[in-house]
Each structure stands twice: as structure tokens, then as C-alpha cells.
Structure of YfaZ family outer membrane protein:
Amino acid sequence: MNKRILWLSIVLLSSASTAHAERFDLSIGDDSYRVALNGPLSRLFAETTGQYDVGAVVRPKRRDDLLVAHVGAMLTGDAGARSFESAAGLGVRAVYIGRDDDPGGAIAPGGQFEARFPGYERIGFSFYGYYGPEVLSFGDFDEYYEIGTAIDYQVLRDASLYLGYRNVNVRVEDGPRITADNGLHAGMRLSF
């Protein structure tokens, strides 16, 4: 599992240098942590609106170390709320699920919503969700889903702290449901 984590770190760092990532995100929960990079798709594909996202949830120090890594793309835009700044997006993720004996993955469509409060633009909230049903799952897994929500405060215009909730869940083929992460977490987002 340590080799997988090292490999993922190298991929994330090389993605940052070649894609000029706009935002680095790190969050820590009780049993897991999440690392992600995201930014405008136009950095990868000229004249494209939306954003790319690459990251992983790692659950070390458990009986079965679990790694849930993803790469995704999403079209984004103004959500149309007149009273506050908001944005929404729809897209898809390719997910790799690594477990000691059972690798697999899923293709997961999903979306997100982000908003800032009028008059208090430094305070914002977000929600996202992705679901990979059995028909879009492969390897030793039958289902994947990830949902999350957070409230953040911009300490600086390019640096935010946040508190959130995340649930990352997979179901083993003909077996139990495994939770990679379920609970509160604290994090920070740094924009470049």
C-alpha cells in the first residue's frame, strides 16, 4: 500500500507542474485524509470551459488499507442565483479503488454546487456527489459513491479553511460495503 501512496503522490505532483493547478485541497478526518488538485480544463484543453480534478482518499492504519483515487472533468458555470454568487457543475470521474487484495474501479457521473453569501463573500458552502452503479463498476467492486459538503472561510483571498462532511463508500462484488471515509473533516484550500 505504501508503494501505491508514493505512486499517487508522484502523479499528483507531476499533474500540478504540467497542468498548472489552480487549487490544492487537503482535508483530514479521523481515519483518512484526502488530497486533491483541481483547476480550469482550459489549462489541459484549449478553449474548454469547466474544471479538471485529480485526487485520492487514503485510509491508512486499518486492517485493510484502502485507496480511492480519481481523475475527472466537469463543465461548470453560473448557477443562476441572483442574490448570491454561485456556480454549479456536471461531469464524470474515473475512479480507481485499491485494496490489499481487491483492486477495481468505476466510472461515476456527478455534480457540484458552490455559493458565497452576499455581503459576507469570504464565507461559502459547497456540496458535491458522484455515483458509480454496478453497470459502471469493474474489477472486484459493484458500486461506488461519494458525497460531501463543506462550509469554508477565506482567511486570505487565495487560502481557505473549511469544515465538512464526506462519505466515500464502495461495495465489494458479492461482499460487504466498505467505507473509505464517513464523517467530519477539517481542511484547507490553497489557490495558485
In short: Confidence is low (pLDDT under 50) at residues 5-10, 12-20. Residues 74 and 91 are 4 Å apart (CA to CA). The radius of gyration is 17 Å. The chain has one domain: 2-186.
